[in-house]
Amino acid sequence: MNGVKKLIGLGLLAGFFNVCVYASFDQREDVLQWLDEADSLGFTKAEVVNYLAQTTAKPSIVPILRNAPERKLLWSGYQQRLVTSSRIKRGIEFAAEHTDQLNLMAKTTGVDGAIIAAIAGIESNYGANMGQHLTLRVLVTLSFDYPRRSQFFQRQLAEFFRLCFSQGLDPMLVKGSAAGAVGMGQFIPTSYRDFAVDGDGDERIDLFHSKADNIASIANYLARHNWRKGAPWLLVVDTEVDPLWVSKKAKRQGVELAEWQRRGVSMPGSYDPEAEFNLYAFSTEKDREYRLAGANFYAITRYNHSLWYSRAVVEIAQGIAQGMAQGTAQP
């Protein structure tokens, strides 16, 4: 009986803490302090408080971020999940439908159309699934109930209010991903502010409805992160390598290709010997796979820092480009 009483007491105590943690956001001291310290959010303070009063926490969001597939899966498992024939097929159709826009982006930014399409494919299934989570609810939860990245998400929350105000959006209705990203390209609010551009010439940036704006914005994002026209995306390494040469995280600066060749690393094709590359390892159920990656792969990792994600983009893009070459003109 004493054990039961203890369990009941612990349960009530846990419930009490849950109520405290997930109390109405407009009444929490940490939220009100953030609001007092925030620069202009577009909406008045009273309006923001009203939106917060209508918002409840969504604690189920945190495990989604913690258990992202690139954190849990081997590369081979991640590849099997993302680099599918159906995604490539839809990518070829998407590229054919938007050939003119993709060609324009390739000409003006240097970013390959197949890469743009591949990112759209992974992020939102080419615009078919741009997220069903209420963005305000997600961002408020991650801002104040996810301490590890609270400062980052508080910046996103502030920018989200500014975005909604400037575009005449109701913050209570906007939907996106479990990380607060929106649109076909899944831009977080600060990326929307810094990299989104008008792609259809209507003098308005709208990543919620305009595919042209999304295509142009993805291209602009990569271009602003130093995409190099005509440079290779990823090079297959055919020889044994020293594990000490492997970079565990994406790096901007690398080793000249000529030096890799002096080390005995060989790869198919001929490339600029002065171009810099880093060596990355990709885990499988058997042996590791090694790839050399340069500036363009690094640009993709600025979109999503995961090496797994960036290689998936490349492999989907390769499939799209091959399909377009076999059918209509490659974007």
What would a concise description of this structure say?
The chain is an alpha+beta fold. It has helices at 2-21, 29-37, 45-53, 61-66, 69-72, 75-82, 85-97, 99-109, 113-124, 135-144, 150-167, 189-195, 211-224, 257-262, 295-303, 307-326, and strands at 133-134, 175-176, 235-236, 255-256, 276-282, 289-293. The chain has a four-stranded antiparallel beta sheet with strand order 3-6-5-4.
Give an overview of the whole structure.
By secondary structure, the protein is α+β, with helices and mostly antiparallel strands. Among the domains are: 23-65 and 132-176, Bacterial muramidase (Helicase, Ruva Protein, domain 3, Orthogonal Bundle); 235-293, no CATH class. Helices cover 53% and strands 6% of the residues. The chain has 16 helices and six strands. It has helices spanning 2-21, 29-37, 45-53, 61-66, 69-72, 75-82, 85-97, 99-109, 113-124, 135-144, 150-167, 189-195, 211-224, 257-262, 295-303, 307-326, and strands at 133-134, 175-176, 235-236, 255-256, 276-282, 289-293. The strands form two sheets. The chain has a four-stranded antiparallel sheet with strand order 3-6-5-4. Strands 1-2 form a two-stranded antiparallel sheet. Strand 5 and strand 6 form a beta hairpin. Helix 7 (85-97) packs across helix 16. The longest helix has 20 residues, at 2-21. The protein is globular, with a radius of gyration of 23 Å.
